[in-house]
Write a structure and sequence with these properties.
2 domains, 13 helices, alpha/beta, TIM Barrel, 3-stranded antiparallel sheet, single chain, Enolase-like, domain 1
Length: 343
């Protein structure tokens, strides 16, 4: 049975909203400071952190996810611990060791490639350094964020495949291009799986990827899909193996990602839920960072969001005002949408 998501009033959300601005340890996808809003409700805290360029209609799913966390909680888990991967931004090879060291015990790494202004040689240098630092048994996956054409993707993945890739995430922007990359890699005998990320979380029809046989697996993120329950439905409808990933969340948002990973029927791959380690600070007294390559599930009402940390990383007044306006615009977009949750 499905029931409509009952939104709290905008006044209630605005009253509880706390906006933080946390510096990044390293530049990540062009971001040096992560701004998010934290709301509190009867079930705990939720994170409202759509990236700054997102329009209200895009941000509406992020607000739905935050409201789910704060007001409804999450489905029952089938596991309590989640294997996670290290995340390596588009840094020079010489900096890889210091980045990997922040992800305690992780045996899988996701490496950013196809960075604007860089060349394939930079990607090869970075992936080679990851393989050298983590050893022959580690799993390495690359993430292009749709930065290649089909021709570039096939050539790059053929070159990178010598390092033993687990999969390539969103090598090209469109579903049709992903499908073509899969076909061309198979014809060339290049054994690299294709994963869809943006083609899931930014799509009006996330299941198109599976229907068009454009990916071998999917990457799902709680906030862009509208919450844990909504993401579970997408995974079920796609019928493909799923990797749960984050969107540069604080521990509040990360807890929702862990809740999703803990509720999936199958979890064949390590999840991209270790990125709190890329932030200089956090809002939780005990940040959700991997220990021994694992994260433990924590209920929203048990995550200790610290008032002192909220104050320490509080955004400047002009940015707080901007986020309150954004919350109002996004609330209006969400109110006219058809966002639902399952009890």
């Amino acid at each position: 049975m499905t029931r409509a998501l009952v939104l709290p009033s905008l006044a209630d959300l605005s009253e509880s909203l706390r906006v933080v601005s946390i510096p990044m340890r390293v530049r990540f996808r062009g971001i040096t400071v992560r701004e998010v809003g934290v709301i509190r409700g009867p079930a705990g805290c939720g994170e409202f952190g759509p990236f700054l360029e997102y329009r209200p209609d895009e941000a509406a799913r992020w607000l739905a996810a935050a409201v789910e966390s704060a007001y409804a909680g999450w489905p029952a888990p089938v596991r309590d611990t989640i294997p996670v991967n290290a995340t390596v931004p588009a840094v020079p090879g010489a900096e890889v060791a210091s980045v990997v060291a922040r992800f305690d015990g992780c045996a899988t790494a996701k490496v950013k490639v196809a960075e604007r202004g860089q060349a394939l040689a930079d990607d090869l240098d970075r992936v080679a350094a990851v393989r050298d630092v983590m050893g022959p048994a580690a799993r390495i996956r690359v993430d292009a964020n749709g930065g290649w054409s089909v021709k570039e993707a096939v050539a790059a993945l053929a070159a990178l495949a010598v390092y033993g890739l687990e999969y390539a995430e969103q090598p090209c922007p469109t579903v049709e291009e992903l499908r073509e990359v899969r076909i061309r890699l198979a014809r060339r005998g290049v054994d690299v799986l294709v994963a869809a990320d943006e083609s899931i979380r930014k799509a009006s029809d996330p299941v198109e990827v599976a229907r068009r046989e454009a990916a071998d697996l999917i990457v799902v993120k709680v906030a862009p899909l509208g919450g844990v329950r909504a993401a579970l439905r997408v995974v079920a409808e796609c019928g493909l193996p799923a990797v749960v990933s984050s969107a540069l969340d604080t521990s509040v948002g990360m807890a929702a990602g862990v809740a999703l990973a803990s509720a999936l029927p199958d979890l064949p791959h390590a999840c991209g839920l270790g990125t709190v380690a890329l932030l200089e600070g956090d809002v939780a007294r005990r940040p959700l960072v991997p220990a021994g390559g694992m994260l433990r599930r924590v209920d929203a009402d048990r995550l200790e969001v610290d008032a002192e940390l909220l104050e320490r990383y509080a955004a400047p007044p002009d940015r707080v005002g901007w986020w309150h306006e954004r919350l109002a615009d996004t609330y209006a977009a969400l109110s006219v949408g058809r966002h639902t949750v399952q009890p």
